[in-house]
Structure formats: structure tokens, C-alpha cells
Design brief:
The chain is about 50% helix and about 10% strand. With about 120 residues, the chain is mainly α.
Length: about 120
């Protein structure tokens, strides 16, 4: 009996795989909170993969300049205080903020296989 041909993975499945790999990749690349000691917030909790422009923007979702590694404490605080988030980005990461703002309205179709290959190497 012949085996059924494998179905091509859905875009949703590819995006989920890409998210897992990207999170591991960026946290391995930067194994510390990038805001530690740069503000009055006390670091705490596990490291998390964070975005300057939110993950809903697929164009920027995996771009290195749009990613930060923050502890859970910083991620939570700045998630609840967006004005403070922009201020600290302007002060500490102005080049990343500029690039994210510059590219945020671009519309492109994301090739998740390319990103998966990049994060897997």
C-alpha cells in the first residue's frame, strides 16, 4: 500500500514554527535583558522575545532591528505603558526605532520558509 503524500504545511503552521525558532534564536543571541540598568524598572522573570512594532506587523515581525530581548518585568511594564515605551526607545535604541518606523507601512508577503532556514542555521 502506498503512503499518502505529505500535505504542504499551512501558513499558520509555518508562522508558529517560525515564531518558536525566532524566539529561541534571539534569546540565544542576546541572553540578557537589553534594558537592565537603563531605567528604574527592576528586572525579573524569564527572558522574552519582544518587538518595537508589534508582532501583528508581519513585515517587521522577524527583522533584527525590530526585536529586543527583555525580562518579563520590563516587557510587562512597557506593554502597559506605551508612552514610556516610546520614550525609552528614543533614548536607548533610536536607530532601531527609526528603522522600525521607516519600514512599518511596507506590505510584503512573508516567506516563512526563508526565515525558518535563517533561524535554524
Amino acid at each position: 500500500m502506498l503512503a499518502k503524500p505529505k500535505k504542504k504545511p499551512s501558513r499558520t503552521a509555518l508562522k508558529a514554527k517560525c515564531d518558536i525558532l525566532a524566539s529561541r534564536y534571539y534569546r540565544a543571541l542576546t541572553p540578557f535583558c537589553e534594558l537592565e540598568g537603563r531605567d528604574s524598572i527592576v528586572c525579573g522573570g524569564s527572558l522574552q522575545w519582544c518587538h518595537i512594532i508589534g508582532r501583528a506587523n508581519l513585515r517587521l515581525r522577524y527583522e533584527p532591528f525590530n526585536n529586543l530581548v527583555l525580562c518579563a518585568g520590563h516587557h510587562r511594564w512597557y506593554g502597559l505603558h506605551p508612552v514610556d515605551w516610546v520614550r525609552i526607545l528614543e533614548r536607548e535604541f533610536p536607530e532601531r526605532l527609526y528603522l522600525a518606523e521607516f519600514h512599518r507601512h511596507e506590505i510584503v508577503k512573508i516567506d516563512f520558509q526563508v526565515w525558518i532556514a535563517r533561524f535554524s542555521s
